[in-house]
Amino acid sequence: MLSTASCMARSGVCGLLLACLVGCGGDATSDAALPTDVGVSGNSFTLNGVAWIPKAFNLAGFVSTSLYLKHLPSQAKYNGYLADTEDGPALFAAIQRWGADTVRVFVSQYFLSPASKRSPFHDPQYFDQVVSIIRQARRNGLVVEIAMQDEEESGGPMFHGLPTSETLQAWLRLNKVFGRDQGVMYELYNEPTQPAQPPPCGSAETPAAPSPRAAAPPTAAQWGLWLEGGTGHYPEPGEQSQCFPALGMQTLIDELRAAGSVNTFVLDGLALATTINGVPPVRDPLNRVGYGIHQYLQEGTVGPADWESNFGAQSGRLPIFVDEWFACANTKPGLQNQASYQMAVDFLNYLQMKRIGVGGWAIDVTGYMVNDVPGWTQPSYYAGFPPTAEYPKLIGDAGMLIINAFLADYQRPLTLDDGTRLYQQPSPTYPPIECST
To answer: Which residues contact 404 (CB under 8 A, 6 or more apart)?
Structure first.
């Protein structure tokens, strides 16, 4: 167990004595949330009134019910569920050991809603499991960002691309538990997107399949739907003529504030959270709104000019959080076909320059942020660089890059060395476990 002084030196969240006792080995049995206050001031997030750059890891294990995750062809997220539920204390100890102060927890709006009772993958314990993992994180001194997920992995029958009444129902249910805890942020809808030129509702026309990620700034009409809602179109090309009543971000803000929420809200940009270029202003009586960005170094997000256009220029006036990111060497999204992981180093240094926090995806899925789950003993890293005849492609992920950024508290530029060593060279099995999509 660390001394109080050591704990306070190692973690910003442990700056309070109570947080230190809970987060670093003290009594974590109390159900009371820690006195953490996340807010917004100007273009910065704040923590207990001080400008703050979040350092986060994502948790994937509760993006759906365990029954649904076990049903998926890829077992990665089900393994995340097992890691979260069976190795909780070690999980949160590792998150803090690697320098993070925040966890981003995916939740399924479908399985939080009554509609899911018709699903063969419904689990009546799902809500309680979500509440439990969030409370565990809070008792361990961590800020929590709840990310409302509607994409396929969440288990719902359709990905809408914009919030719906189901989204609001899920939030109002969670808000009864967490609405007064200012250490819990609400990411109101993960990765919204809408087609730029959808066919008329009910049309038999099948449009071409452009990339849903940012290739050009969203149109005013797309941003209007994002803000105020209206007639939404399912984003998949074969489904774009099917329409649904979409809620806007403003409606979610208004309804949650009316329900007593004092939380900070994170609003993802359009094109699957790729961009906030052209984002309209929102109204919030508490002025606790920031913006979420996901940049996977592909298709319009690959270099400084893209980053500046998508969110960097706006970061001078808006609080930004790149709350989901990884850069696996052998995957797309990621660094597939790249000869080096220099782009990943450059991206994290760009965020440092802009004073923007990052959330690594995902610490509970083997091969992304850590190679050993459970165990949490070895960060993922870039082996095989420069390429060799035996391993011509880079192998690994950016876990060690992110961890070095966290442990250095963004106080120095990262280098290629930060992708392969953690102050001392780990003892790897070569090659390390590969990332997989």
So the answer is: 414, 418, 422
C-alpha 258/C-alpha 355 separation (Å) is 32
Contact 326, 334 (CB under 8 A): yes
Q: Cite the beta strand spans of 24-69 per DSSP E.
A: 38-41, 44-47, 50-52, 55-59
Q: Is 84 helix (H, G, I), strand (E, B) or coil?
A: helix
User: Cα–Cα distance between 144 and 130 in angstroms, integer?
Assistant: 12
Name, in order, each residue with C-beta under 8 angstroms of 59's C-beta and a sequence gap of 6 or more. Answer: 80, 84, 103, 104, 105, 106, 133, 362, 363, 364
Nearest alpha-carbon partner for 259 in 233, 286, 224: 286
Side-chain half-sphere CA neighbours of 104 within 13 A: 27
Q: Are 312 and 363 in contact (CB under 8 A)?
A: no
Distance CA 291, CA 166 (A): 22
Q: Are 161 and 193 spatial neighbours (Cβ–Cβ below 8 Å)?
A: yes
Identify the sign of the CA torsion 44, 47, 48, 50: negative
Q: Residue 29's pLDDT band (boundaries 50, 70, 90)? A: very low
Bridge partners (DSSP) of residue 379 are 370
How many C-beta atoms surround the C-beta of residue 340 within 10 A?
16
Read off φ and ψ for residue 359, nearest 5 degrees: -120, 115
Longest pairwise C-alpha distance within the chain: 67
Considering just the CA atoms, what is the radius of gyration of the chain in Å? 21
Helix (H) or strand (E) holding 273: helix 270-273
* pLDDT (tens digit per residue) in 316-368: 999 999 999 999 987 888 888 888 899 999 999 999 999 999 999 999 998 89
Judge contact between 38 and 44, C-beta under 8 A.
Answer: no
For tokens 């750059």, what's the residue? 53
Q: Which residue has the tokens 């670093």?
A: 24
**Token pair belonging to 425:** 């060279």
Q: Which residues, other chains included, contact 181 with Cβ-Cβ below 8 Å and sequence gap of 6+?
A: 33, 138, 263
